[in-house]
Amino acid sequence: MSNTPDSNIKVHPFVQILKEELTAAMGCTEPIAIAYAAALARETLGKIPERITISVSKNIIKNVKSVIVPNTGGLHGVEAAVAAGTVMGDAKLELEVLSHASSEGQAEIRVFLEHVPITVTQSTSHELFEIDLTAECGADSAQVVIRGFHTNVVLIKRNDEILKEQKPQKANYCQAKEPSAAARLGQLTVANIVEYADTADIEEIRPILDRQIACNMAIAEEGLRGNYGANIGKVLLATYGDSIMIRARAKAAAGSDARMNGCEMPVIINSGSGNQGITVCVPVVEYARELGVPKDKLYRALAVSNLCAIHLKSGIGCLSAYCGAVTAGCAAGAGIAYLHGGGLDAVAHTLVNALAIASGIICDGAKSSCAAKIAAAVDAGILGWSMYQNGQEFHGGEGIVQKGVENTIRNIGRLGHDGMRETDEEIIKIMLCNQT
């Protein structure tokens, strides 16, 4: 390894990032985070509440409005997530809080919704991610606040007693529990990621990636077997055939088909999102199988796709009007480039090309159409790699593309985090007006 600041990276920081980011979740992570808060509040209260109030940031409203909450018998919305977490949530399981549900529990959720008032308001704070839930029974109350990312509990309070409190800090979906995580994220550059993939001790990341492969490929196959949402995966295969370029898109889309429409199988997330976790993994695995590469090569390519996605998303933030499938699909393209033997130049050009193609796709909440956006984003990633193979590229100064992959990535962060704030406001206004 060279001694330049960008390349003098120890293995351990990137392993830690993968361990912290690639965690299991069942269902769309925003309603699951609400269910987690509700389960914590019920546990803290020590009894079933008689009334609940919950304030959530606008982007959470956007992502919870249309997606089905798993193990509820097809219910969706903030109230359903609150009721599910209260009635049958196991807070110890965090983002798998609803995984121990039963058919009897589903009936209890509906009874709870009929008899317990749940008041939902939009948060007045400027936090992009905030859940503030209070459960009451008689004179007793329990308050839980989650802020910054899905499992970041900053306050637990019972009556007037504060049981847990975290001082205000700048939180992000990918800042883990340790303060040093932000510093580790600062080490993520495309050059460092490729160098790490080339030299990583596979045994350190094999268990993490084996679980990602097993979970995310399983839900992709289920999406093709079952009847979920708009069945985008099936539509792609039926319309365009089963070439590798179509299968890579179709299987990723099928995983989202299932996940957005009530499938109760867990996924391994990336950047706080199950859809993004599926997108960075499934196309890369499908290409690896097609190419017949050794398993170690697949692990290294998955390290590229996962870490590139985290790097791309870190400048945008947890929730935005910028569709997270885009960053994940472009990162998958980078992983596919690496599978084909591409080095830093190939990975960097693939990312820039793909980002230039797909960066206009908006996020208008979690729902069935996420699967189609995933298909489009993976297509952009594959096209970005194909352009590089054919000696073609988008050049600095063309739109948001700037010379140097890190400069283009910074532009994407600026676009998603700052430039699309007003777009986000309008999307939410449109969604709240359109309740049908």
Provide an overview of this structure.
The chain is α+β, with helices and mostly antiparallel strands. The chain has two domains: 27-165, 60s Ribosomal Protein L30, Chain: A; 188-433, no CATH class. Helices cover 56% and strands 10% of the residues. It has 17 helices and eight strands. Strand 6 and strand 7 form a beta hairpin. Helix 8 crosses helix 11 (274-291). The chain starts with 10 loop residues before the first helix and ends with a helix. Mean pLDDT is 90; it is low at 1-9 and 170-180.
Oligomer: single chain
What's the pLDDT, averaged over the residues?
90
Helical content class: 55-70%
- Beta strands, count: 8
- Broad structural category: alpha+beta
In total, the number of domains comes to 2
Low-confidence stretches: 1-9, 170-180
Strand content: 5-15%
Strand order of the largest sheet: 3-2-4-5-6-7
Determine the N-to-C terminus distance: 57 Å
Shape: globular
Number of helices: 17
Listing every helix as H and every strand as E from the N terminus to the C terminus, the arrangement reads: HEHEHHHEEEEEHHHHHEHHHHHHH
- What integer value in Å does the Rg equal? 21 Å
Query: Major beta sheet, specifics?
Result: 6 strands, mixed
